[in-house]
Amino acid sequence: MSDRSVFFVSDGTGITAETMGNSILAQFAIKPRHIRRPFIDTVDKAFQVVREINTAGEREGKKPIVFTTLANDDVLDILKTCQGKVFDVIKTFVEPLEEEFNMKSNHRVGRFSDPSVDGEYNNRIDAIHFSLEHDDGQSSRNLESADVVLVGVSRSGKTPTSLYLAMQHGIKAANVPLIPEDFDRGFLPSMLKPYKKKCFGLTIDPERLSQIRNERRPNSRYASLENCRAEVSSAEAMMRREGIAWLSSTHKSIEEIATTILRDLRPDRLIY
Amino acid sequence: MSDRSVFFVSDGTGITAETMGNSILAQFAIKPRHIRRPFIDTVDKAFQVVREINTAGEREGKKPIVFTTLANDDVLDILKTCQGKVFDVIKTFVEPLEEEFNMKSNHRVGRFSDPSVDGEYNNRIDAIHFSLEHDDGQSSRNLESADVVLVGVSRSGKTPTSLYLAMQHGIKAANVPLIPEDFDRGFLPSMLKPYKKKCFGLTIDPERLSQIRNERRPNSRYASLENCRAEVSSAEAMMRREGIAWLSSTHKSIEEIATTILRDLRPDRLIY
């Protein structure tokens, strides 16, 4: 167990405080204990968090670090009485912006807008359902309304990337596997023909692919290094021949793959 | 089109800069144009972004706002020559932390760790595949290894929430629909019986449910307000009888639902 605690305290989900805090902590060679405290929206709840922070600090003999995004001044004032080191993520940047915008901020509690009236939110949900229905080449129905069609061999990362693109960016991302039958025939799956311009390929090191496939189907031909090498090399040759851009998912997270796809295939989505 | 531009400039995906920037901008009654510039990891790319920022500023007659998480000092120094107002998200908090930790930061470029060697990342990918395989009551295989089983009527938000829990928190979230046959019999689906303690319910206002279902199957009995009212009221009665905690998804985003489920059902996941 680590000997230093970091608290993420928010009146909403705490996603901002946590994303931010984690990026900052990544700059240091330490592994603190992380404690999320979402929905801290009353003075009473704030007092309770202060007690938790102080207890951790006494136990560890080190000041806990506190990243917070509380917008309500009463709640924030209580939190600031704790013995931890408080980093106020919002306020630090809000005051200089008030000056630049020549406008007072509205101290809005950091929550998502109401989904029942938010068009952008509903687009994300629609995109998730679209990506699910078009996972793994399940359906060619409505493929013309896809924003992106990911292609690649089985277990190259297409499904998580499609779902991430839908969930975070509202992108309708279908995915279609390239399978040995396609390599034998030497053609892309026929459902892809009309949509080649929307295709984006994922490839992966055969060694890593074999390792991933072995976790699912140990000692199968499907997972063998020899077969993985053959599939990957055929898939790359096919994508090259068809002029489909691709990247390797081996050392990239789904977040990085998704951002690259947006930049290369839908640069308009980088402006919104 | 808005008359003020906001840039998110990062050497990685830009997710931190964007999450952070959006939370701060939500404090103001303005709708600026958002421009993401990920993977800015060389001096040349930084010069190009500076030109973009300056061009936007001249066109709009207002200083662009720039949220950045650049860790490389050479690249950051170039960016800071722009005519926009630069908010350096990382550096602002890193220096006071260096003092508190009594340790120099490592100026690490903000990227995800390498998935091929990162256990936590692989747990997330496994959780995504688990949640997909256990979407919509498709399979009772391995249900004992689920962290959470979401239950509720069709289109109450179970699928997007399951996938979000998997993707962001590495939670193995299954989901099982409650359907009219279950209400007629008066019992939970039998596959749920052994796992009642892991169940969490989603409910939804019948009016909103009818609206959502009508988008998929217009004018069907399935989507009719009368049927939605009957299903929702039967589902709530069943969850009450079975002692299953639930919440309403009507006015909550999947992020808020997921955070609530973690807090109520898996509080251990709030500490990591």
TrEMBL record, chains A, B:
Key word Nucleotide-binding present: yes
Reaction it catalyzes: [pyruvate, water dikinase] + ADP = [pyruvate, water dikinase]-phosphate + AMP + H(+); [pyruvate, water dikinase]-phosphate + phosphate + H(+) = [pyruvate, water dikinase] + diphosphate
Enzyme Commission number, as recorded: 2.7.11.33, 2.7.4.28
Superkingdom, taxonomy of origin: Bacteria
Binding site for ADP: 152-159
InterPro entries per UniProt: Kinase-pyrophosphorylase (IPR005177), PSRP (IPR026530)
Top-tier EC class: transferase
GO molecular function, one term: phosphotransferase activity, phosphate group as acceptor
Keywords: Kinase, Nucleotide-binding, Serine/threonine-protein kinase, Transferase
Entry's family note: Belongs to the pyruvate, phosphate/water dikinase regulatory protein family. PSRP subfamily.
Functional description taken from the UniProt entry: Bifunctional serine/threonine kinase and phosphorylase involved in the regulation of the phosphoenolpyruvate synthase (PEPS) by catalyzing its phosphorylation/dephosphorylation.
Protein name: Putative phosphoenolpyruvate synthase regulatory protein
Organism in which the protein naturally occurs: Aquabacterium commune
